[in-house]
Amino acid sequence: MSALLDVVGVYKRFGALDVLRGVNLTAHRGECLVVLGASGSGKSTLLRCINLLEPISSGSIAFKGETITGSPTNAHRANANRANANRANANRIRQQIGMVFQSFELFQHLSAVENVVLAPVRVKGEAPQEARAYARHLLAKVHLPDKADALPDELSGGQQQRVAIARALAMRPELLLYDEPTSALDPETVGEVLQVMQELSDEGMTSIVVTHEMGFARRAADRVVFMEHGQIAHSASAADFFGAAVPERVARFLGGIET
Known about the structure:
α6 links the parallel β7 (175-179) and β8. The protein is an alpha/beta fold. α3 packs across α4 (128-141), α3 runs parallel beside α5 and α5 runs parallel beside α6. The protein has helices spanning 43-50, 80-94, 112-122, 128-141, 157-169, 187-202, 214-220, 238-243, 248-258; strands at residues 3-14, 17-28, 32-37, 58-63, 66-67, 97-100, 175-179, 206-210, 223-228, 231-237. Mean pLDDT is 90; it is low at 70-78. The strands form 2 sheets. Strands 6-7-8-3-9-10 form a 6-stranded mixed beta sheet, with helices on both faces. It has a 4-stranded antiparallel beta sheet with strand order 2-1-4-5, covered by helices on one side.
């Protein structure tokens, strides 16, 4: 597998607090990479840095061999041309890196299909009719073929999250980031979201998944990373992570989650 994403020596500071401390991470094409760790370990911040929603403090992030760490917030404010160039670069990269958040972030006044169509039409300039046809295809892909015209408040939490996944897929990304996508769901709807995520992984979608769902990690992950105090403390194949001897701190974390 070839590398799609390379995170090298990344630090992220909020004031005097180092949230990420020298993170090194590579995601290969077609790989499902699951990131585990306690709350506050830096998992979500790492995803936000990869998607250029947060500027890094130092280090580098490369996507498809191109360094992408420049962002509007990193630009010198006095240099308008540079700020505009960085903003355009961030928008271009985000079209190729989709993200699914903890909360669904759907527009409440738009139907499911309208939520999925919005970005391809406005950002990529796709023809509305073609975008709508593809959106319906994606809603069927996430097992919601009959919910295209439903408003978000007419959908369960699990259904709304699947619409959010379809919305991310509508931009035809090469990398999909999931930030605790089931944490806001009722237990009975978690499985339907995880099923869609696993199906996408089985089809070869490159993904980085922050989750506490150990069953999903065991089934779908090619590799599992454990973060602690802003660093990657352990990384292994899923088989080795769950089946072989692991560092004591990882074992304690797994014991706390699975009991």
